[in-house]
Design goal:
Layout: E1 5-13, E2 17-19, E3 26-28, E4 32-39, E5 43-45, E6 54-60, E7 72-79, E8 87-93, E9 97-101, H1 102-111, E10 119-129, E11 135-137, E12 141-146, E13 155-161, E14 175-179, E15 185-192, E16 195-201, E17 204-210, E18 219-220, E19 225-227, E20 231-238, E21 243-248, E22 251-254, E23 267-268, E24 270-272, E25 277-284, E26 287-293, E27 300-302, E28 311-312, E29 317-319, E30 322-329, E31 334-339, E32 343-346, E33 359-360, E34 362-363, E35 370-378, E36 381-387, E37 390-396, E38 405-406, E39 411-413, E40 416-423, E41 431-436
Parallel strand pairs: 5-12
Antiparallel strand pairs: 1-4, 2-3, 4-6, 6-9, 7-8, 7-10, 10-11, 10-12, 13-14, 13-16, 14-15, 15-20, 16-17, 16-19, 17-18, 20-21, 22-23, 22-26, 24-25, 25-30, 26-27, 26-29, 27-28, 30-31, 32-33, 32-36, 34-35, 35-40, 36-37, 36-39, 37-38, 40-41
């Protein structure tokens, strides 16, 4: 039996007049309206083994606005007693409740910086949104929850090196191999160009393997292995038997909601070794989408119920216009899709201040708050960083000290190719780096 905890009855003094297109189209909101916020649990210990299980329902009564308002609601979480705590906002749409699965609430905790395994006190509010100009949050109520790490360690000492790889013959870190379910069998996902490659340990030549006959067998100090066609590849390395396989391999999003439509090119999903999932941060249009392998329909997944589960050749998944993070777990055949923010590079040094889409940053999925934009071609000019191709939230550098300020000064750029990193791990002092290649 669930024990519902009535946390707060709040009174909002909210005097607002909305004026429509004609003088007769005037609505006056009731000055005082109330709602009751309920939590069905206020002390939660999360465990990874219980992913997929409902652990918290936040619900609230419908406010009386004095007219039939099309309100939307967000559930807000912050750290109790922490000054300038970050806030995690989770959309509930027009519903009067939001259900959180184990993994949903755990993500909220980790994003707030909660220490896994330690009970964390949270403040919970409901933000009532009547328009872009008018919203009001409830007073906070308290919740104690304990997160789990949720981070896998699939790292190995092995990597791929060579002229066919992104970092060449040792010009940077080798492309890593990751553990699989089979001991001693490792896998690497890599974009390659025409060239050659080998396998080595610890980014060093002391232990390295090639193939003298290019036949799937490996020899110490063996020959370079050729790549005849550029593309996205999966390399499987069997350390036990000193064998390898290499195959064209990619996953992507396709559909009327994606930039490439049903004919592609697909939006690439990137492998996240810290959760053994595949992810994309993307702007989607009103429409539908599916997941397919190698930009081809031979292997594809949809969802017959659009319920977070995947079926081979399943139904199209509907979506509305917005920026989203899509996470796909091929082990469990599940997916999630949530609205998110996408940082981008804008300016006279890149796209004439938005004449074309901004260059998007990719989140570092193993390090919350870090974002990368690699191989960005900049011009002589100036740049800034903004969210969702819009000036509502933008960052510059006043003082050119490497610290970002919202609405800060433009950052000078010199023509060249750069790797750019944004660091929001300390939200009050975000930083950036530009590294010439």
């Amino acid at each position: 039996m669930k024990k519902y905890i009535n946390k707060i009855l709040f009174l909002l003094a909210f005097t607002t007049i909305f004026v429509g297109c004609s003088e007769d189209d005037v609505v006056v909101i009731n000055e005082d309206f109330t709602t009751t916020v309920n939590l069905d649990n206020n002390n939660i210990v999360l465990e990874e083994a219980n992913e997929g299980v409902q652990v918290l329902t936040v619900s609230w009564t419908k406010p009386e606005f004095g007219y039939e308002a099309a309100a939307e609601y967000n559930v807000l979480f912050s750290l109790s007693g922490v000054e300038d705590s970050p806030v995690e906002s989770v959309s509930a749409g027009s519903a009067l409740e939001k259900v959180f699965m184990t993994e949903d609430l755990n993500k909220v905790l980790l994003n707030l910086g909660a220490e896994p395994g330690t009970a964390t006190n949270l403040d919970v509010m409901v933000d009532i949104i009547l328009s872009k100009q008018y919203s009001k949050a409830t007073e906070s109520t308290s919740l104690t929850a304990t997160a789990y790490s949720g981070v896998l360690d699939l790292t190995t000492p092995w990597g791929v090196v060579g002229s066919a790889t992104p970092n060449g013959w040792g010009d940077g870190p080798d492309t890593p191999f990751y553990k699989t379910a089979e001991a001693g069998v490792h896998v690497a996902y890599i974009n390659m160009i025409v060239g050659e490659w080998k396998i080595r340990r610890d980014n060093d030549w002391a232990v390295n393997y090639g193939s003298d006959n290019n036949d799937g067998t490996l020899q110490q100090d063996g020959g370079n292995i050729p790549v005849d066609e550029a593309g996205s590849y999966k390399i499987t390395f069997d350390e036990n038997n000193l064998t390898y396989t290499i195959e064209k391999y990619s996953w992507g999003l396709v559909g009327s909601a994606t930039p490439g439509g049903w004919d592609g090119p697909d939006v690439p999903l990137m492998y996240d070794s810290c959760s053994d999932t595949w992810r994309a941060v993307v702007k989607l249009n009103d429409g539908e989408w599916k997941i397919r392998q190698n930009n081809d329909w031979a292997v594809n997944y949809g969802s017959d119920g659009a319920d977070g589960t995947l079926q081979a050749s399943g139904g199209n998944i509907p979506v509305t216009l917005g920026y989203y993070e899509v996470i796909v777990d091929f082990n469990k055949l599940t997916y999630s899709i949530e609205k998110t923010s996408v940082y981008g590079v804008v300016g006279s040094g890149y796209n004439d201040w938005g004449a074309t889409p901004d260059f998007p940053f990719t989140p570092d999925y193993c390090n919350e708050g870090i974002y990368y934009a690699n191989n960005v071609t900049l011009l002589d000019g100036e740049i800034k960083f903004r969210v969702n191709n819009d000036w509502g939230v933008n960052y510059g550098d006043t003082g050119l000290d490497g610290i970002l300020e919202q609405d800060g000064d433009n950052i000078p750029s010199t023509a060249g190719t750069y790797d750019i990193m944004l660091d929001f791990t300390n939200p009050s002092v975000p930083t950036y780096t530009l590294t010439a290649k």
